[in-house]
Specification:
The chain is of the alpha+beta class and 124 residues long. 26% of the residues lie in helices and 22% in strands. It has a four-stranded antiparallel β-sheet, with helices on one face. It is globular. The model has no long low-confidence stretch (mean pLDDT 95).
């Protein structure tokens, strides 16, 4: 985990998103806590973990409110905001992850009200 890179990316992300905070983990790492509001006004709290960052894409968990069973989530509950094969540590950063998470949450809101996940889907 590249903590210096994460620290820099947290600072950059705060210029685009209102609530982004870094917190220590019990194993000496760091995770990011965020609050995002969708276009229909729902607010979600998320936790972003950085296993083997930046080589591996961060895992995003929505911690509040509890999400209902929905598409595009892994068995452990983290959301599928990007196909893992598409992660590029040279191009992608925390601001990208937050933007994709915000997009996922807006799609989740649509799915909750219509039962249809909007947009393209990549099977994996």
């Amino acid at each position: 985990m590249d903590i210096l890179r994460i620290r820099t990316e947290v600072t950059q992300a705060t210029s685009k998103f209102a609530f982004v905070e870094a917190h220590p983990t019990t194993d000496g790492g760091v995770y990011v806590k965020t609050a995002l509001q969708t276009s229909v006004g729902n607010t979600y709290i998320g936790a972003i973990y950085f296993p083997n960052y930046p080589s591996q894409m961060p895992k995003v968990y929505i911690t509040k409110p509890t999400l209902c069973e929905s598409p595009h989530r892994y068995n452990d509950g983290h959301i599928c905001y990007l196909h893992p094969n598409m992660w590029n540590p040279g191009r992608h950063n925390l601001t990208f992850v937050l933007a994709r998470t915000a997009k996922w949450l807006n799609k989740y809101d649509v799915w909750c009200s219509t039962g249809v996940w909007p947009g393209a889907e990549v099977p994996h």
